[in-house]
Amino acid sequence: MSETTIPAWQVPAPPERLERVSRLYTYAVVGATGAVGREVLAILAERGHPISHVRAIASERSAGSSMTYGDSEVPVASLTSDSFAGIDIAIFGASAEVAREYAPAAVRAGAIVIDNSSAFRMDPRVPLVIPEVNGKELDGTPSLIANPNCSTILLLVALDPLRRAFGLERIHVATYQAVSGAGLAAMEELREQTGAMLAGRDATPRVFKEPCAFNVFSHDSTVNEADGVNGEERKIIEESAKIWNERIPLTPTCIRVPVLRAHSQAVSVTLREPASVDEIREVLRAAPGLRVIDDRAANDFPTPRKATGGDQVLVGRIRHDPANPPDAFGRSRHLCLWLSGDQLRKGAALNAVQIAERVISRSSG
């Protein structure tokens, strides 16, 4: 099959399905027992979506259990090719292998699929969407939509307003990534290792190759021997180019830190047009999905703790690059900033739900 051929299960959603979606839509959450799936269920409950129209789906070993849904519990069903009858929107929070096997079945059943894995992100036929950045990709109501990598989402939510206002020539980013990016087992490993080390015992790694408690190490994705770029860094580079439809030179260094959830990033950019710090703050304050925390006098800036459980990307430490000081008018093309964002919410589950809500609003508008 050529890359320009759109398979039958990937065509735009039929109008009759969109009409039903706009009235009363039914969600399936695939991978409901995992970290992302749990967060999707929590967000749907927060938004008042009726439990009668939510189906929690997971592997066969989880079938028969139940998941918290607001003040209630929703039963977990086993994932099969027949799991999607009557489903309007299927949010996948499972592995790429699961997505490749079952997403086509969901689309064939009439569902709009939003996939959090890497399975379809770089497929040129599949839109890769951050609603605040390139939500127009959803105008054609595709039946399969890819959710970007968590680090890509947080970075582009913060930088896209600057790209639009001043242009971007160059980006350097160092990530400080919470263990939540590796799932529930990694989060439990950090808890266990922290307790062990405080008690004077060794921290034995299982999920990671290195102990994560009281430690910092290069991201655990595979490193390309030819160029030294690891898989997480490659995702940020390639996904940013696809989302922006523009390949801006981008140098990431991805690091795992002993934080339970919420990633942080230290970012340096070169703008096309010079700007003052006040102009940068004004643009960021007006941007969707962002909250500026930038109080130099109080030394108050974004942290993972402040970002955890929140829906916005927090941005601060906004300053000119000291190696390239501003001109006589207080403007420079060289900018530094710091951000923190909840990896499980805006970096994954929330972005997927926002995609679903935008598709629904398009169909009902």
Question: TL;DR of this structure?
Answer:
The protein is of the alpha/beta class and 365 residues long. It contains 10 helices and 14 strands. α2 (35-46) packs across α10 (345-364) and α5 packs across α10.
Question: How would you sum up this structure, described in words?
Answer:
This protein is an alpha/beta fold and 365 residues long. The chain has two domains: 8-119, Rossmann fold, CATH 3.40.50.720; 152-343, Dihydrodipicolinate Reductase, domain 2, CATH 3.30.360. Helices cover 32% and strands 23% of the residues. The chain contains ten helices and 14 strands. The chain has helices spanning 15-23, 35-46, 96-108, 131-134, 150-166, 184-198, 231-244, 277-285, 304-307, 345-364; strands at 27-30, 54-58, 66-69, 72-78, 89-92, 112-115, 144-146, 168-177, 217-218, 250-256, 263-275, 290-292, 313-320, 332-341. The strands form two sheets. The chain has a seven-stranded mixed β-sheet, with helices on both faces. It has a seven-stranded mixed β-sheet with strand order 9-10-8-11-14-13-12. Helix 1 (15-23) crosses helix 10 (345-364) and helix 5 (150-166) packs across helix 10. It is globular.
